[in-house]
Every structure is written in C-alpha cells, then in structure tokens.
TrEMBL record:
Biological role stated in the UniProt entry: This protein is a component of the acetyl coenzyme A carboxylase complex; first, biotin carboxylase catalyzes the carboxylation of the carrier protein and then the transcarboxylase transfers the carboxyl group to form malonyl-CoA.
Record pathway: Lipid metabolism; fatty acid biosynthesis
Residues in Lipoyl-binding domain copies: 1-79
Region of interest called Disordered, as start-end residue ranges on this chain: 1-22
A GO BP annotation: fatty acid biosynthetic process
InterPro entries cross-referenced by the UniProt entry: AcCoA_biotinCC, Biotin_lipoyl, Single_hybrid_motif
UniProt GO molecular function: acetyl-CoA carboxylase activity
Keywords assigned: Biotin, Fatty acid biosynthesis, Fatty acid metabolism, Lipid biosynthesis, Lipid metabolism
Protein name, per record: Biotin carboxyl carrier protein of acetyl-CoA carboxylase
Gene source species: Jiella flava
Any one Gene Ontology cellular component term annotated for this protein: acetyl-CoA carboxylase complex
Length: 80
C-alpha cells in the first residue's frame, strides 16, 4: 500500500464539513473515491472544495477543523 500526503491547494481556513450543523465530509478510516470532497478552504467568504484526485483510505488529518492553512501545507494522508 502506498501512502500519500495531500496538501492544501490555497491558503485559507480549512473546514471538514459544509456547515457547523452538518456532518464532516470524511473521517479517518473512510474510503475516498476520485472526485469526493474531503473538506473546504475558505478565503474571504469564498469556499473552495478540496477534491480527492486519487482513491484510497483516509488515514489521518494533519489539521483540525477551522485551522488556518498555507498553500502546500499537508492536510491529510491517503493510503491507496
């Protein structure tokens, strides 16, 4: 199995769910398919989805919900 680290495409605030009242997109241990939304990055009230480009199992998050992230910062590990 190959583990890869997915990085933030842009700087902003990372969110694991679409809103505080809704469940998270993915949890550790969940299967991830190509095209799945794993989180959102918000910049000045504009939300950019973090879309999986490869399939696998989400192993671990490197950031917490509502953490500020920089472009290139590790977000999560995916095992294929």
């Amino acid at each position: 199995m190959t583990k890869s680290t997915i990085e933030a495409p842009i700087p902003g605030t990372f969110y694991r769910s679409p809103s505080p009242q809704e469940p998270v997109f993915k949890n550790e241990g969940d299967a991830v398919a190509v095209g799945d939304t794993v989180g959102l990055i918000e910049v000045m009230k504009s939300f950019t989805p973090v879309i999986a480009e490869t399939a696998g199992t989400l192993v671990a998050f490197h950031v917490e919900n509502e953490d500020a992230v920089m472009a290139g910062q590790p977000l999560y590990d995916l095992e294929a």
